[in-house]
Known about the structure:
Distance between the termini: 16 Å
Oligomer: single chain
Amino acid sequence: MNLVLLGPPGSGKGTQAKRLSERLGIPHISTGDILREAVREGTALGKEAKRFMDEGKLVPDEVVIGIVKERLRGEDCEKGAIFDGFPRTVAQAEALDRIMEELGRRVDRVIDIEVSEEEVLRRLTGRRTCKNCGAMYHVVFNPPKEPGVCDRCGGELYQRDDDREETIRERLRVYREQTEPLIDYYRSKGILYSVKGEGKIEDIEGEILRAIGVEG
Length: 216
């Protein structure tokens, strides 16, 4: 099964994708993780991507599409994949359809995780990341034992540029403008299902499983 997760920044797509990957036995493809790794390594792609990410803007299609196409050729993707953070525009969705067709596959289900703007801000502005090991914390939901210090390695915790309120509001504006049209795109194909993204993680996962026809 090839599954696409839609939703605004902070809607929990990554969390749900990881859980579903374990449950369904298919890989979680997160373009965000791939791009952030390139940023950490300081590659040419990473430097280009960081400029857009820090401003809350989308990384150019040709970069993202190339990464996804290469990833889908992996043996572990033969039985399907879960897409998190891609596609983000109708043009990317059309490109994904073409890639799938080349591989003799298709997008089977698209899940739109609905979360309010207020909840997004609460979730994202509270995130903190370790400068050393990259561990993630949240000042409310998952605080470190000692404020500002990583439980794992003792490294300094910081707020990423793309987790600052002004950047998040820009990311939400970009999402509304460029990504929300995907809802109509996939609805017209008859494969879109909407679930509420506020509540217990397990309950949201259960809703998604029911939407894709898997027993909880």
